[in-house]
Every structure is written in C-alpha cells, then in structure tokens.
Amino acid sequence: MYKEFLIIYFGGAILTYILGKSSRFLKVFLTLVVALAGFIIFTHLYGANLGVEIGLFKGFNIGFGIDHLSWIFGEIAVTLGLLLSIGLFSFDELPPTFFFLFQIVIGSMVLIVMSRDLVSFFFFWETMTWSSFFTIFFGEWEGKGKAAVKYFLWSLIGAYSILLAFSLLYSFSAHSLLFKDILLFLPGMSTTTLIAVFTLLVIGFGVKTAVMPLHVWAPPAYRESPHPFTPIFSGVLSKMGIYGIFLSLFFFTARFSSIGLGYLRETHILGYILAWFGGATAFLGALIAIKQDSAKKLLAYSSISQLGYVIFGLGIGTSMAVTGALFHAISHAIFKGLLFLAIAGVIKRIGTDDLTEMGGLIKKMPFTFVFSLLGILALAGIPPTIGFPSKWLLYEAAIERHFVFLAAVLFIASTTAFLYSYKFLFSIFLGQLHEEHKEVKEAPTPLLIGEGILSLAIVVFGLFPGVVIDAVTKAMAVYKIPSIVAYSLTTVTTSLGSFNALVVGILFLIAFLFGFVLYLVGGRAEKVEHLDNYLAGEAVESIEMHYGNSFYQFLIRELSIIYTKSADEVYRWVIDFTNYTSEGIRKLFLGDGQVYLFYMAIFLFFMVFIMGVM
Amino acid sequence: MSPILLIAVPLFFAFSVPLWGIISKKIEKFIPFISLSITTAIAFYFVPIAIKKPIIVVTGGFLPPFGINLTVGALGIFLAVLIQVVGVLVSIFIINYRNPEPGEKYYMLFLLLIVGVTGMVLTGDIFNLFVFLEITGISSYALTAVKKKRGSVEGAFKYLLLGSLGSTLVLLGIALIYGSLGTLNMADIAEHIGHMDKRVLLTAALLFITGFGVEAEIFPVNGWVPDAYEGAPIPVIAIFSSAVAKAGLYALARILYTLMGAPGLIHLLLVLGILTLLIGEFAALRQNDLRRLLAYSSIGQMGLIVLAFGVGTLGALSAGLFQILNHSIGKTLLFLGLGIMITQSGSSKLDALSGFGKGMPITTLFFTVGVLSLMGLPPLSGFWSKLWIILSVIDAKYVLLASLIFIGAIIEAAYFLRVLKVLYLGSYEGPRPRGNFLGGLVMASLVVILIVFGLYPHLITRFLVPAAQELISRTNYIGNVLGGL
Questions:
Q1: Of the candidates A91, A345, A341, which has an alpha carbon nearest to the alpha carbon of residue A231?
Q2: Residue B202 to residues A494, B179, B196, B199, B313: CA-CA distances in angstroms?
Q3: Which of the residue ranges A109-113, A303-307, A464-468 would you say has the lowest mean pLDDT?
Q4: Scanning every residue of chain A, which has its alpha carbon at the shortest distance from the alpha carbon of B418?
Q5: Which of 168-187 (A) contact B at CB < 8 A?
Q6: ipTM of the complex
Q7: Which of A238, A487, B478, B483 is the most exposed, fewest CB within 10 Å of its CB?
C-alpha cells in the first residue's frame, strides 16, 4: 500500500518536472491531481491496520504500515497539501522544480508516517529535509540563501541525532530494524542507553518542531520560504517533529518503562523536564513574537510558541495531557495553515510582510480578513473555534496534576498570544490604509478557497470537538494510553469538568449578535479621516501613525534580556570557533614538500614509539 | 580468456599511442576510450566467475618474484570493475575536453595510471603490488605536472617526494616480510605469518600504513593532495580520487587483514580515519577554490572509509566498500562537473562560478546530485553507505566515534551547501555557455548509477558482502589460492 504513494507523489513529481516546462497551467494542474489522488487514497486508509515487510538487503528488513496515529499526521499532510496545491494556481510563476519539490515533500511526509522501521523512517525523513531545503531557494527575498543553509544545517544536526539514537536501538535489537522487534528488546537495554536514546530523539525531532533552544532556524526559514509553501513548514513539517516526539515518548522508550529515574505525580522526571522545555518555548516564543514587525516571523514565533504547548502536553504524558497535545497539534496545523495562507495572499498583493507598511486592508480584502480573524480566534483559544477545546484540555491536564508553575507559564503565554494576535490582525487589516494600497485587490481566489475550507474546519471542529477527540483517542489506544476523557459529538468531559461546545458556541453567537445589533441601532457614527481619529483633530501636516509602532514598548523594555540575548549568540560562538579551527587546520596544508616529509617522519617515529611502549 | 588482459590490453594501447599518432593525430584521443571499453567488458565478464572462486593467474615461465601473478577474487574484481567503469567514463569525457599538449604523452600516462591501479587491486603477489604501486606513482607524478604550469610542477614535486618515500617504505616492509618468510605470494605469506617475529611484523605493518597511506590520502602523509589536485588536469584528479586513493587503501587493507590477520594494530586505522576525516572536512570548510575544496573533501571521505576499515566487522567492511563505490562515482561526478564549469568560467574559484545554476542548469543539477550523494541524502546511493557505516560503527560500540563522524558530516554539509548557495543563488554574468554533450552524457550516466543504487541498494550489496568476506576470511583465501596453484 506504500507503493501507491511512492508512485503518486514521486512519479507525479517527476512527471510534473518534465511536463511542467511546457505550460504554466499544466504543472499546477498535475500537482493538484497528485495531491487530490494522494488525499483520497490516504483518507480511505482510516482505521486500516495494514503492515508489510520487505527484505531490502542483507539483514535490512523494512516495513510499512498505518495506524490511527499515523493516519492523523498523514491526513494533516495530505489535506494541507491539497489545499495548498489549489492555492498554487495563483503562484504559477514558480518554476517546475518548485512543484517537483512540493510533491516530494508531501510524499515523503506521508511515507514517514507509514514507515514501520528505522531505515525507511530515516530515508523519508532525509528526503523531506532536502526537498524542503531546496524549496527555500525559490523564495522571493534576499535572505533566502542564508536561511536555507541554516535550516539544512540544523536539520542535519537533528537528523544525525535521530540516526545516532536509531543506531543505538538497532545495535541492541539483535540487528532488527523493524519497530515491532525493537519493542521486544527495550526491557533489555540499560537505563543509560535509554536515556541517551530518548535525549537524542527529542533533540532530533525537537529541531523540526523548533522547540527552544533548537528553534533558531525556524523564523528565517519560515520567512524566506516561498509564501505558498510556508503553510507546509509551519503546518505539517513541524508536526512531523511532534509525531517523532510522540513516538520517542510512547514507543521508542515505551513510556520510560525501563528508565528508573522516578516520577513526579505520575509524570516521569524526563517527561517533566520536557514539559518545562515546552512551557518555556510557549512562553518565550510568544514574548518574542510580540516584537516582530515581519508578519511571517511573527507567525513563525507564534508557531514555535504554540508547539511548545504540544510538547508540554506530551511531556506531562497523562492521558488528558496527551489528548490535549494531539488535539492542539491538529488545531495548530489548521489555524497556522490558514494564517500563513492568508499572509501569502496579502504579500501577493502588496509585496511586503512588514507590518508597519500595512494597515486598513479590511476594505480591500474582506474575505482574507474574516478568515484571518477566525484563524486568530483559534490561535488565541477562543470558543467556538477549534483552539478552545485543545487549550482547555492542556490547562486541565496541568491543573489536574497540580503543576501550578507550568500552568501559570502557559496562562501567561496564552495572554501574550492575545497581544501578538491582535498586533497581527490590527496592523494588517485595521487602522490607516496606506496611500499606495488604494488600488489593492482581494487575495487571489485559489488561496481563498483553501482559507475558506480551513476556516470551516476551525468552526466545525470547534463546535463538534468530539470528532477530533474520537480520532485522537483511537490513536492513543494504539500506543496503550488509556483515555479518561469522556466525549460526545459536542461535549467534552474530564475529571475536572465538562463543556458543551455547541452550547458555548451558540452563546458566543448570541453575544456576537447582541453586540452587532447594538452596533446597528447604536449612536450614529460619523465617518472621519483616520488621522483625525488619532490626533483628535489637531492639525499636523503629515504623520505616520501605525498600531505596530512601539508595540508594548514597556514590555520590551522591562524584559529586554529576552529581546537582546538570543540563542543565536551561543551558536555564533560555536561557528566562530569552528571557523577558527578550520583556518588553523588549513595551515597544515600550506607547507612545502619538506614540511610534508617532516610530518611523515614524525608520524613514523611516533608510531614506532607507541609500538615500543605497547 | 584470462584476467591478465585487464593489464595487458591497456598496456598495449598505452605504448601504441605514439604509433596511432603517426596515422592520425585525431585517433590518439580515442585510444583510452577504446582500450578501457575493452577492459570494462572483460572485467564485467569475470564478475560471476571471480565471485564463485578466486581466479589464479601465473604468467608462464617466470617464477615469483618475477612475472605477473594475479589473484582475482570477489574484492579484486569489484574494485577492478569500479576502476574500469570510472576510467571508461572519464576517457569518454576527455575526448572533447581541452587536454594538455602533447596529447600522446598524456593519453599514454593516463592508460598507464589505470594499468597501475588495476594491477594493484588484482595482484596476488606482494612484490607485484610494489611494482604496480610504482607504475601508479610514476604516472601520477608525471600526469600532475603535465600542464607544465608552475603550480602543477610544484604539486607534482610534492607528490613525488611523498610518493617515492612512501613506496620506499612499502619496499622496506616487503623486504622485512621476505626476509622472515622467504616468500612473496600473498596467500603463502598469510599462511605462515604466525611464524614471523611479532616485532618485525608490527614494524612492517607500520611501514605499510605509512607507505600506502600516501596514496590512500591518510593524515598526516597526505600533504600532497591539495597541491596535486590543484595542479593536475581535471580528468586526472577524478582518477586520483576515485581509483588511486582507493587502490592504496585496498592494498593496505589486504595486507593488514588477509596477510597479517588483522593485528591489534588495526584499531590504529580508527584513529587515523577519524583524524583524516575531521582534518579533511575542517580544512575544506573555509576553502574558496573548488579544486582544493574537493581535494579536502576527498581526504575527508577517505578518512571515513579508513575508519570503516578500522572497525573491521563484516558489516563495516561491506559498508566501507560501498562507500568506496559511492565516493568514486560521486567525486568523479563532481570533478567532471567542475571541469565543464571551469571551461566556461576559466577559474575554479567559487566566486567565478556564481549563478551557474542559471547559466548551466543541467551541469549544475548533476553536480548537485553528486553533492547530495556525498552528503548521504536519499534516494541516492551515498545514503546507504553512510547509514551502513554509522550502524556498523555503533554496533561495534564506538558511539563517540560515530558522534565525531557526525561532526565531520555537518561540516561537510556546511561547505557543500555554501557551494550550492553560490551556484544557485548567485547572479550569472557571462556569455551563453556552449554545451558539452559528451561531458553531459558522462555525468548523466554517473547520476544514473547513483540513483539506481540509491533506489535498489541490494543490486550492489550482493557483491559487497562476499568481497568484504574475502578480506577477512583468511583460511578460505589461503585454501583457494594455494589449492589453485
């Protein structure tokens, strides 16, 4: 069954590359056909419990299969892939190579989740990495080269961490690469090995998820990647990291069953540490997002922050936390996919992602505004959107185990999320319309289709969270995580409480209607110039007023340590050291013949000396 | 048919180059291609035979140590095929590449180089090994200097200094063994090695490591590499990196494993390998001249292979052989691609190649495939060998060593990505380039090899495992050879 996807995505990619040169329409159309075929076939695999094993070469047996968990992550990939390939119709100026890479990225992600052995997992993981790396080369802006290289180097650090962990597992599992065999040998591994495996895996997958401090590649890569591709980065590629972290927690180390380090209120110490990394990421990511003036970077930091919640949930590891984490991973894919699509439409029209150069676009792009609003509501976790139940579950999970500080950190992060969400929405759509944007049109329709469908999902899943929780519960059952979350289509009940999303939704709707009626019947409004509004009628010749200017200056001043110090500085030091070493070593090869002969003589002498000692 | 043809045919063509030149100067440049396509066919013919049982050839009338004495087993034939395939592809490439004048010397030396290298991997006699090493060496020195530029002569001189001292050390090692055991046949030595004095044996081993280390580009005796690579013609460098270095390492591995039965000294290769790897990669990091950069990268890759040979398990040796294949194919691809680009840019400086992704899209695409394969990315062949090496190294419990390999690999990625960035994102200024059809064809075939073995690794691993087996199962080797005499 994995062969279908190999043929569809990889065959399709090659076909698109060859035929794409002839016509602009054809290459997008082929991409859409491939994405649609992949979507239909993959969606039909729901509930399937397939598995095949293939002998590759001496001692290398590989396997493919699918379960409820991998279906969820694969479905995220194929769905966003499909919606984006519709959107690509408005980006048909990109060369065929981009469309080739696009399909390779989606295909390799589908095959990652279907891999049931170490080698094919790593094979497709690396395929995903290089193909997404090359897409950044097709970005529009100057910094793309640097961002791409940074992304790839970080990904390699991650990939090699994963490979090291995988090789350790391989060496302990009687040379079997299959996941199911490895599980049998886990109890026999020493604590040190398992801790090493766990740490390496979390570092490896954490790079893709952009958990701090491994996140430094993400903001530039997200910003510089081609605008219609960024939703894949934030929506799906990062989810592969989440998928990997889930596996490292609940599969590769079997919920720490053999690591005897002790538990803190039923959460394993290592999980607890991971949860703190998640919490810190959520908190710091949100704070740094406030300061960003680049819309894409703002969303990137927001993405980092939101995934911190997911890491937190997985780290806590109780069944409520994991339900919340997986739910939030799904929500995040939907709303961040939506927001990056929306910003792609805006950039397409005005050519910049600088928030200070935008404003007042609501009149020009009403649909984009409405969709972005829904996305932002979900991001901030406001009912009746999908963002509410997932965050609700995560908070409950923290409270349930009395992790007070962690809960507090998450609450602050969430409040901060309101700030940057508002900055994003206001800077782009509200306020003063710039002179040069008077003629701007609505975002292209293909993008709006994708945004519309995702908006619909945000509301539908927000009103009926039971659908998502059902899928998540089944996924957890595969990895033997019991579910204590009771749910029906519209209600979610935990040990701490329950809420009915439909009722909450209707209440919110009534409140909204009430406000709307007030707005309609309320006092007469007089249309004034924006500047009059800001300056209370005082006559100033020309002044640039923008919501994003000096945004939360006091916060940035008080917390300057966060904004001036960056993880990049530490890495800068490593890079400088490496370059310095490199210069030094290069000098070894600048000698003349006599020097090299001298090396040889010393070498021989040294070896004979060692031999004499032995 | 006898495997001796693998040596005799190119030898004949090499010395007949001047004669062909009398008929027509235009024929000359086809001679290497004609000769090597014949030997390639012969080499492939012997693959199934040699895999089953080593082929023993003793040229009539001459008793060892004189005459040519071949032992063609799974390992020998694997390397011979690899050398012939790379050789024939490079010989197609040189047909319309701007070659140094006078042509006849160049083509003759080119063929002699292939003869020397092929002889090194096929011979079953330790003195023959030395003779072929000398043939390889002398033709290498001459080929490095063939451009008659100052840099080329300087590189050749450095190579000559280290290379000749290296082969002297090898000869000393051979003398030590001959003095103790009174035989030069490899299998015979392997059988009686137990009778040798341990100290003499170890001294010989050290001499071999140093001596062959020069060709195998092992640190610290690889000082000649960057200068020679900078000075020699591009097709010759491709052979240096893909065949000469590999043959040097083969000879070392054959002696240490099959002849000496892998003494504890073998772990010295682990240290030398990782040192070579790290030093090569670090030296390449800040390099702006692509010839030198690829030279350092070649050193780094050789370090990885030496390291795999130092681990010494069957898996590691098979993986090391796989890496030999991938590095040969990948580096040849890179050097030939660089050669085509240099004809356009006139310089191998990175700045001069800026934006070639737009100017020469196909050449750059093939170049990129080579880079990705060397970096070990799927679905290319290099992925499997690097993965296999890592798995074997960790399987042998060298976890720290694996981490150091990763550091080397990340640095390697850093400089290769820098190159790709300049190639693709730089701005292209220059005239519309002339196509090089033959060059493109050669590069395309190398790319196909990398992709096919990347998608179907079992096609090649079938041959690698018996080859590695031959290296370490000494009793089989001794029995097969001595029984066959």
A1: A341
A2: 73, 14, 10, 5, 21
A3: A464-468
A4: A149
A5: 168, 170-171, 175
A6: 0.91
A7: B483
